[in-house]
Input
Amino acid sequence: MDGLWEKFKMTILTMNRKELEKRVGKVTDKLEKRITDMGTPIEEVTDAEVEVEVFPNRPDLLSLENFARAVNQFAGKEKIAKFKILPPQRDFLVTIDRSVKAVRPYTVCAIVKGLRFDDAKIKDIVDLQEKLHNSIGRKRRKIAIGIYPLDKIKLPVRFVGRKNEEVKFLPLESKREMSPRQILRGHPTGREYAHLLEGVDVFPIFIDADDEVLSMPPIINSEKTGRISENTRDIFIECSGHNLIYLKKCLSILIASISEMGGKVYAMRIRDAKDGDLVTPDMSNEELKFRVEDIEKTLGISLNEKDVKSYLAKMGIFARKSEERGARGGDMVAEIPAYRTDILHWIDLTEEVAIAYGYDNFEAELPEISTVAEEDPVDRAKRVIGNVLAGLEMLECSSFHLTTKKNVKKMHYEFNDFIEVEASKTERDVLRMDLMTNMLQILSENSDAAYPQKIFEMGRVFGKVCSEELVVGSGSETGVIEEERLAIAMIDERMGFTEIKQVLDYLFKMLGVEYEIEDVEDSNYIVGRCGKILVEGLEIGRVGEIAPRVLRNWKIRMPTVGCEMKLEGLFG
Output
């Protein structure tokens, strides 16, 4: 699916060659190899530009300034970055009103003074803004960024929710004032992102102390207060969205880049009566404990503390020996920069060490064991099933094991027995209990793609173990049981039970398994158009037409059919 691929494909960073060479030196074959070894393959080098591929896990590299810093650190020419954040001045305040909580509940902000813009710098900032929107911001769904000339607004700022008839302003690239709904219907940018505010009762609005509208995130800025130019010296930055952790990381990436342009960064106070006040940006490092022995064992090379410190420094990460009481030899602490979004676990530090060590420097070794290779039976079964369904012009998906309670309840509204993840770094904080929820999310996010859409997924789902199900040595001692399942979902304007039944008939015939369907009532499916799938008299899954209630929750406007079953049941 196009929308699903957009989430994972690499981003191309295009940089002015002269500007890059000012920071990192002449672009030679040696430097090109160093850039590639850093994990950002060179796409193209011309006399005017340098293009590199940036993987989705490194949004901090999506600007010339941040990229040049990383290259210099990798070459050992630049120390680990430190950022000076000045305390908030009087009126450096943003108040989040309760009225906006239901539609876009959080914002983080900063002020940068003393910048000197030219066309190239403005282009760099706008380019970084859009790349962050499309990567970590998931096309503005999770994060919307606004950058404003400070001289055009009066502090403090309010972030409020306003009804359509209560607000009107002149959006960028427009010649007349418009209400929020008029923008969503009549402005090109409004139409492009209208789905992000579909069905809301109030619209998120930034307003200054003179009641001038700054913007309506995540859609568009005001023409009067939201356009920077070569005359702009001081700017106000805001990031708004639904996940405070994402927003803080995004603002840190922006500040890390803009601070390289020579401005002074000032913090702002965020007054939030509901969720608590805070001061942003916070560029302090996050500490992560690790052991040198773990990295050695994983990479298969000999390392000491000095080696690890040196390799991590090349990746812009400071490491030190742990001084905690009871710490053993090899216990260390890494200080993760605020702008890094990809370091969550010591295994991520292992990858950083491997990159700095150089993959070309690893020596291949033959294992001192003798084995006969054989394809895993489960994988073999999946391959057979995948080939059958691909022959029916279906696309295979691979979605996250983690999801959100909100997504689960869109289908299973009475379900509350969640398996929660402690200290989740994202909004995905529970293990999935089925595959169909993810199938419907994919269909919902691809409503602009061509129909019919036919997708399937094979993967694990998770459930809690009842006391009578706990068997020592079975793997259920953790309290969590895992199960491999197959889910199929199809959507079109004339899709019905007959179509999904034909798919099952063909699948089971190709697998040589007898099956039958018996009527059953299931609130997730339309009554009378739902059945349980039986193999040798045992229920292995459900099939049917998805209930209108569920489709409404996912904003799906076409008939949808689906089935979900245990994989082992497909082989009797």
